[in-house]
Design goal:
alpha/beta, 2 domains, TIM Barrel, single chain, 526 residues, three-stranded antiparallel β-sheet, eight-stranded parallel β-sheet
């Protein structure tokens, strides 16, 4: 393999230099010693378990760490980027890796953010902070029709499928969820053997119904009910759309469809796997809500909900109208922001389609409040959640809990090389190549996942204590503020309109009136 070319070259060069030294002078022995030293380094790189890059790229991989030692910002810019190519800020990049490795994360000097920039946001701290919570709270998910509610952690593993991620990565995440007491969303790739390591599972079904489909691709109720009955499955979720590419289906390249993935998903091996852009189990808001009720029934009363990237407020209101008229509510809704990542999506969709998470969360939250159903439905937030501050901000904006994908991938070793779609991930995270996958040492990465999640939740509890709060339920919109013009700052209580419980049913305010009028529970309007 090309990535082991240096190792092969060193072996050949070592043999030649030893031969030359035996024939020639002492100078050749110096070269032989150097080559021998490099071979020892290469051998160590192959057997060590801390760095996935070195396990796949012995000797050459040290260039990454050389760049880091010479200029951390240069190294991080090139290999610790977002999927969309825009780099995280320094604080976010360093916090993810340090928390995953259990390293003390305090940094010298002040902020590198532009505090005078329009759009800068900050939380309001208290002059009289309180002691942090001894234990992070959990969120009870389960409405009146749910017979098996689940207590969700504040931060969980977002939807990432077996197929898009390697078996080793999925296993490390699930083992981490088991040890850390949080949940892992399966993504739409079905429940694989690598999910069977004791971690709580949110089983997500997309439009391909993988893991619960007939041979011709239709939803199989019997198969779904049998698998959803597993004790490890705590909730079931229907994926309507994804933040990075809302409105189109998913594609798993043929090169990634191994025999194992084919068995897990119930699809032919070695053929491109395509998820349709639309569902066959519903075509209107009313049908969606009725299916959620059936979904929950088939899952034996476990919490049932759906995930979407918000496009139109009219669609959200149409779904809410269907809830009111049918008397049926999902137990949860996961709002995926347009800033969410993916292994492969058209650039146009990544940059120009879908509502950002802030607006999406506040739309769903206010719509549920406006129809008087917010107390029955929990809201999850997904889309570039990586720190304790993110958890607090998203909860102020309407979320009850959060999910992280990109940050969790980094916790298991992802370096954002953006090779996910090629099956040539250099660190064994997003590949089905067993030789590349071996670089990811599951026990080591499991520890990092647990460490990262615990550190972020702990930081969230510390932040609300600094705000003078003893409970996340005490967070209010006025506690988050944004610079909107030079010299002018406004809180979220002022920036956004907040509906009163049941206000839409009584008389929709003017700003919501037209959308409420257009919303039709029997039609998703274009």
């Amino acid at each position: 393999m090309l990535r082991f070319f240096v190792l092969l070259a060193l072996v050949v060069l070592g043999a030649l230099t030893v031969l030359a030294a035996a024939i020639g002078g002492w100078g050749w022995w110096i070269l032989a010693a150097v080559v021998g030293g490099l071979l020892i380094v290469a051998a160590y790189d192959l057997i060590q378990r801390r760095h996935s890059v070195l396990r796949n790229y012995p000797v050459l991989g040290h260039m990454r760490f050389l760049l880091e030692s010479i200029r951390p910002e240069l190294q991080q810019y090139f290999i610790e980027r977002n999927f969309d190519g825009r780099p995280y800020d320094r604080d976010t990049r360093s916090a993810i890796y340090q928390r995953a490795k259990g390293i003390k994360e305090e940094q010298p000097y002040g902020t590198e953010r532009d505090l005078d920039a329009v759009g800068y946001e900050y939380l309001v701290h208290s002059t009289a902070p309180v002691a942090p919570l001894a234990h992070a709270p959990r969120v009870r998910i389960g409405g009146p029709d749910c017979t098996k509610p689940y207590d969700m952690a504040l931060l969980n593993v977002s939807a990432m499928s077996f197929g898009s991620l390697s078996g080793n990565a999925i296993e490390a995440l699930n083992r981490g969820a088991a040890l850390g007491g949080f949940a892992q969303d399966t993504g739409e790739g079905a429940i694989s053997p690598y999910h069977r390591n004791g971690g709580d599972i949110v089983w997500e079904l997309g439009s391909g119904y993988f893991g619960a489909r007939t041979e011709d691709g239709h939803f199989d109720e019997k198969q779904f009910a049998e698998k959803a009955a597993d004790e490890q499955v705590k909730m079931v979720s229907l994926k309507l759309s994804q933040g990075a590419k809302p409105g189109i289906g998913g594609v798993l390249p043929a090169a990634k469809v191994s025999a194992e993935i084919a068995r897990t998903r119930g699809i032919p091996q070695g053929e491109k796997c395509i998820s349709p852009a639309f569902h066959e189990v519903f075509s209107t808001p009313r049908e969606l809500i009725r299916f959620i009720a059936r979904f929950r029934e088939l899952a034996g009363g476990k919490p049932a909900g759906f995930k979407l990237c918000v496009g139109s407020r009219v669609d959200v209101l149409a779904i809410c109208k269907a809830m009111v008229e049918e008397g049926i509510t999902p137990d949860f809704i996961v709002v995926d922001g347009a800033e969410g990542g993916t292994g492969a999506a058209p650039l146009e969709y990544e940059d120009h389609v879908g509502m950002p998470l802030t607006e999406g969360l506040m739309t769903v939250h206010n719509a549920l409040v406006g129809v008087g159903l917010r107390d029955r439905v929990r809201i999850g937030a997904s889309g570039k959640v990586s720190s304790g501050i993110d958890i607090v901000k998203r909860m102020i904006q309407g979320a009850d809990y959060t999910n992280a994908a990109r940050a969790m991938m980094q916790a298991v070793g992802c370096i954002q090389s953006q090779r996910c779609h090629t099956n040539r991930c250099p660190v064994g995270v997003a590949t089905q190549d067993p030789k590349r996958m071996r670089a990811l040492h599951v026990p080591t990465k499991t520890e990092r996942v647990v460490s990262y999640q615990a550190a972020v939740v702990e930081q969230a509890t510390q932040v609300i204590a600094s705000m003078g709060l003893s409970s996340f339920e005490d967070l209010r919109p006025h506690m988050l503020r944004r610079r909107i013009h030079d010299g002018e700052i406004a809180s979220y209580a002022e920036l956004f309109e907040h509906l009163r419980p049941g206000e839409l049913l009584e008389r929709a305010p003017q700003s919501w009136g037209r959308d409420w009028e257009l919303a039709d529970p029997d039609s998703f309007r274009p």
